[in-house]
Design goal:
Pfam families: E1_dh. This protein is of the alpha/beta class. Helix content is about 45%, strand content about 10%. The protein folds into 3 domains: about 130 residues, Rossmann fold (3-Layer(aba) Sandwich), CATH 3.40.50.970; about 35 residues, no CATH class; about 55 residues, no CATH class. The longest helix has 22 residues.
């Protein structure tokens, strides 16, 4: 399995989550052993000039915080894109580190159906309207080289259009999703034959008071003998033992009981975050 993340240029430079996930990339419990980041760089984001949107030359500069290699490639050259993507995959598989492919391209139409890009970027869009679309440019090159004939090209386009049209037609009468092989853990019997969810009853999840008391006592004790505990922690543990005796819970003890009961059933619990190892909340 290899993770591939698709980004826009403005999002890559502007969203804090990008910077945060780069810093997760090499942490022992979080690494994906290298992610390939593909940036679809239309050089404009939504409507804003790069010089008004960021302080560094490239939208991908944020990847330099982990020294990830960054390939800037002309997306009008499909063979160059394929080559760069092969190198990126090889880098990731060899070194298990993140790598970035920056597809330098353009957006032919507006940001959405309502957007007229000539309002905000008239000079850029005058240039874009003169650009030969990449499919035509590459097809013309292959036909000129004698790699394919015009007929073969037209047949390939017709074949692709047919696939799309047939899928669109089929989608109208789909009731049940046939994507079980994509899911981590498909739930058998979740839908009935008509594609409607079955009514579900939840198994009882309660536990005995005896077990809760046991978890409360464990949560307020120190497992190591002759271990000198910090006096502040000692107070917290005493208060917790007292609560357990009095059949009272606060938020922290309730969490302990939830985790403890799940652990007692043999289910692994992993805590992550800023303060969880302290156990004081």
């Amino acid at each position: 399995v290899m993770s591939i993340l698709l980004h826009g240029d403005a999002a890559f430079a502007g969203q804090g989550v990008v910077y945060e996930t780069f810093h997760l990339s090499d942490l022992p419990s979080y690494t994906t052993n290298g992610t390939i980041h593909v940036v679809v760089n239309n050089q404009i984001g939504f409507t804003t000039d790069p010089r008004m949107a960021r302080s560094s030359p490239y939208p991908t500069d944020v990847a330099r915080v982990v020294n990830a290699p960054i390939f800037h490639v002309n997306a009008d050259d499909p063979e160059a894109v394929m080559y760069v993507c092969s190198v990126a995959a090889e880098w990731r598989n060899t070194f298990n580190k993140d790598v970035v492919v920056d597809l330098v391209c353009y957006r032919r139409r507006g940001h959405n159906e309502m957007d007229e890009p000539m309002f905000t970027q008239p000079l850029m869009y005058k240039q874009i309207h003169k650009q030969v679309p990449v499919l035509k440019k590459y097809a013309d090159k292959l036909i000129a080289d004698g790699t394919v004939t015009l007929q073969e090209f037209e047949e390939e386009i017709a074949k692709y259009d047919r696939i799309c049209e047939e899928a669109y037609t089929r989608s109208k009468d789909k009731k049940i999703l046939h994507i079980k092989h994509w899911l981590d853990s498909p739930w058998p019997g979740f839908f009935n034959a008509d594609g409607e969810p079955k009514s579900m009853s939840c198994p009882p999840t309660g536990i005995s008071e005896e077990l809760l008391t046991h978890i409360g006592n464990v949560a307020s004790s120190v497992p190591v003998e002759d271990f000198k505990i910090h006096s502040g922690l000692s107070r917290i543990l005493k208060a917790r033992a007292e609560m357990t005796r009095s059949r009272v819970v606060d938020w922290a003890l309730a969490e302990y009981m939830a985790f403890g009961s799940v652990l007692k059933e043999g289910i692994h619990v992993r805590l992550s975050g800023q303060d969880v190892e302290r156990g004081t909340f």
